[in-house]
Specification:
4 domains, binds serine, 17 helices, alpha+beta, 18 strands
């Protein structure tokens, strides 16, 4: 089965059941400043789930383009992609569980032709306020029984394994859906509800994620080993969070979302979404140009997947008028394309490749997504050329060193990295072309030496500031800037830094303020900081004269001599949100930060308060 056929089948199935088919919304959300990209099928539907009337009626079906920038580094395994299509069907206060569950079963088993004995489902086990979803469990059981498949309902699979069950109850960690996850994480006003998910069994060994292991009798459908893959999610969206619990939404809604490629992977029984026909054309181009074959070698396959995913995502983003740039959405298009070039080089490709890959995607998708046009190719080519120039500079330097000494030492490789941002892998490739290896150990040593030096420097640099320059501390340092600004917004402009101390685990920030902060103030500060993190702001600095820095609203210690360079002060900008005089270092983009949380707020000295805060892992 091909992807276009499956998409059509799905939409037609629901059209026959009285749904209107609507086109996908743009990857850039309209009227929603809280997020850069459309990351789920549900996002553009929020106003209608909240009760607004939809012009196409109360039964809707679609295939929504989605992009998840936070998954960029995850790509390379058998299932992660940054771009994907989410098949959706929506009841806006019309049908509910009695229809949705039998329909989904019929679609997957009768229409797509999946083997019911390899399908497993989960339902919500309930909590103190919301009942256990016995209605959904009962419908699933009837449908499985109808086709002669045993359908035992099991309660505690998480601790005891599957126990021969087919339908599993899980709590709100697994079977609750809202944009912000579990009930306790939902802000007031957010819609959500219990859900019922479907999983495909790729088999005990067949489905394994390349890097993980089957957990034997302890494996169960939500386990991460890769045997099971979630192919769809029925959300029964009937609640809205309030300050002290939940209230019912005006309507009981259904929000179904299913990954087109994942359903297809199940149909093909191929535990690799890159094996679906959507990638055939692109794969062929990369194979032709590189002379390597997808699937032959793990490292190459990883590189193939990165290029396959990233170029497709960039093609769709440019199709929605997001062009390569240094900030906002455009930053991600640039990053996707530049990473692709890097991985193409890893496959031995030196010539332009990306626009030829993009062309195949336009062919494959243009019927379903007419916004994809040839003009996208020009943009990709332009970016490829631009990046080639940057690479060239690094290459020239490489040659200079080579000509002088006839070799590249680990230290040279480190200097290239440090000065031109030239990745070690690239230097290695070039050296290998000359028949030489780069001394990795020496590179590492230099790296460590540099780290130690800057650590010593940092101890000087930030009296009571960064304890080291690890990634963790750098992330917390950028978070400190966001915190500083958020405190000024919430408490007032009298707030100024009185001290800062950062370790790998936490930040500690002292600031001028007379009173203990209220719970509301703390929550609001956290919210503001997390909002900036979610907005994925790029971080950069500019060297400004003191007057200009003041004029542009920079805060911070003007007398900090470590923030002075060439007679000017270094001002760090976090998007447009924070401008602060500082010596660095900082992350490139706030999306690297993870969830910000205040752990403690206490007095430090007279008129000075102290906050300790942490960051979760980046999403
Ligand atoms: N909103 C649900 C999800 O994104 C189902 O569409 O998984």
């Amino acid at each position: 089965m091909k992807a276009n056929e499956l998409r059509r089948k799905y939409l037609d199935f629901f059209k026959e059941k009285g749904h209107s088919e609507i086109p996908s919304a743009s990857l850039v959300p309209e009227n929603d400043p809280t997020t850069l990209f459309t990351g789920s099928g549900m996002q553009p539907m929020v106003p209608y789930l909240l009760g607004e009337e939809h012009a196409s009626g109360n039964r809707i079906t679609d295939s929504q383009k989605c992009f998840r920038s936070q998954d960029i580094e995850e790509v390379g395994d058998n299932r992660h992609t940054t771009f994907f299509e989410m098949l959706g069907n929506w009841s806006l206060g019309d049908y509910f569980k009695d229809e949705q569950i039998p329909w989904m079963f019929d679609f997957l088993i009768k229409e797509v032709g999946l083997d019911a004995s390899r399908l497993y489902v989960t339902v919500f086990s309930g909590n103190s306020k919301i009942d256990r979803d016995e209605v959904s469990a009962g419908h699933w059981q009837n449908k499985f029984t109808e086709v002669g498949v045993d359908a035992k309902i099991v309660d505690d699979a998480e601790s005891n394994g599957m126990q021969g069950g087919r339908i599993f109850y899980y709590d709100e960690k697994e079977n609750w859906w809202s944009r912000t996850g579990m009930p306790e994480n939902m802000p007031s006003g957010e819609p959500g509800g219990p859900d019922s998910e479907m999983f495909w069994d790729f088999g005990e060994h067949h489905g394994l994620h390349e890097s993980s292991q089957w957990k034997g009798e302890h494996c169960q459908v939500t386990c991460e080993c890769g045997r099971f893959i979630e192919i769809g999610n029925n959300v029964f969206m009937e609640y809205q969070k309030t300050d002290d619990g939940f209230e019912s939404l005006p309507n009981k809604n259904v929000d179904f979302g299913g990954g087109l490629e994942r359903i297809l992977a199940a149909k093909l029984d191929a535990p690799d979404v890159f094996m679906t026909d959507l990638f055939d054309g692109a794969k062929k181009v990369i194979e032709q140009v590189s002379g390597r074959v997808y699937g032959d070698d793990i490292k190459d396959t990883y590189a193939f997947r990165v290029i396959l995913d990233h170029v497709r995502a960039a093609t769709f983003l440019i199709g929605d008028n997001v062009f390569p740039a240094n900030k906002d959405q455009g930053y991600f298009v640039r990053r996707l394309l530049r990473r692709s070039v890097r991985f193409a080089r890893q496959l031995g490709v030196r010539d332009s490749l990306l626009s030829a890959v993009a062309k195949t995607y336009i062919e494959t998708y243009k019927e379903a997504y007419p916004e994809l046009s040839e003009k996208i190719l020009d943009e990709i080519e332009k970016e490829e050329i631009k990046f080639a120039k940057t690479l060239e500079k690094g290459l020239r330097e490489f040659k200079k060193v080579w000509d002088k000494s006839g070799s590249i030492s680990g230290k040279d490789a480190f200097d290239l990295y440090q000065t031109y941002g030239f990745p070690l892998e690239l230097t290695e490739e070039l050296a290998q072309e000359e028949g030489q290896d780069v001394d990795r150990e020496m590179f590492k040593k230099e790296f460590q030496k540099h780290k130690d030096l800057s650590r010593a420097g940092a101890q000087q640099k930030f009296k009571g500031g960064l304890a080291d320059d690890s990634a963790e501390s750098t992330r917390l340092h950028t978070a400190t800037h966001l915190l500083h600004q958020a405190l000024r917004t919430v408490l007032g402009d009298h707030v100024a830094q009185r001290g800062s101390n950062i370790t790998k685990e936490r930040l500690r920030f002292d600031f001028s303020h007379d009173e203990k902060m209220t719970d509301e103030e703390k929550v609001e500060v956290e919210r503001l900081v997390n909002e900036q993190i979610k907005a994925a702001y790029p971080v950069h600095f500019e060297l400004l004269g003191v007057d200009e820095a003041k004029e542009r609203g920079a805060i911070g210690l003007f007398e900090d001599k470590y923030a002075q360079m060439e007679g000017k002060v270094k001002v760090y900008f976090v998007g447009d949100y924070s401008k602060e005089i500082c010596g660095g270092p900082h992350v490139e983009n706030t999306s690297e930060l993870g969830q910000f949380k205040i752990k403690k707020e206490q007095a430090s000295s007279a008129g000075v308060r102290r906050i300790k805060a942490i960051l979760g892992d980046p999403q």
